[in-house]
Specification:
alpha/beta; globular; two-stranded antiparallel sheet
Length: 159
């Protein structure tokens, strides 16, 4: 028996292939959609997954304004943040965060609601912060990343 054929291959920075994928968020439930986005950002859908490396894909989400939440979560759910000062605890709802995404002063590709939800599903370390840089969320159907030749994927078929 040849034991060299059973080597475990671990990916390195040069061998990882970062693709660009487009996900349409029309009529998708926010939490389930973001769980799939976090899986793709992390690279867990690839056979060459390594937990300590950035081996995921770049994700472009279009039609983010058409995402849905079940029940009365648009106004009933509260997200907490803290400014660092006494009395600086702030609350916001998904409705408020979605309204902020239409602010013209925000950086293109940034959506506060998707950022809050996906960030909670990623590791809380340097790797998680680096992975958030690979997420681009747009409210309309247009995006400026056509030069990267992104492939459109159906999130219902991602395992």
């Amino acid at each position: 028996m040849d034991t060299l054929s059973y080597k475990t291959l671990t990916p390195n920075a040069k061998s990882v292939d970062h693709k660009w994928v487009v996900i349409d968020a029309t009529d998708q439930v926010l939490g389930r959609l973001c769980a799939v986005i976090a899986l793709i950002l992390r690279g867990k859908n690839k056979p060459s997954y390594s937990p300590n490396m950035e081996c995921g894909d770049n994700v472009i989400v279009i039609n983010a304004d058409k995402v849905r939440l079940t029940g009365n979560k648009w106004t009933g759910r509260e997200y907490l943040s803290y400014t660092g000062y006494p009395g600086g605890q702030r609350t916001s709802t998904p409705e408020i965060l979605m309204k902020k995404s239409f602010n013209k002063h925000l950086k293109a590709g940034y959506n506060p609601l998707f950022t809050k939800v996906v960030k909670g599903m990623l590791p809380k370390n340097r790797l998680g912060r680096a992975l958030m840089g690979n997420l681009y969320v747009y409210n309309g159907a247009n995006h400026p990343h056509e030069g990267q030749n992104p492939e459109v994927i159906d999130i219902n078929k991602v395992k």
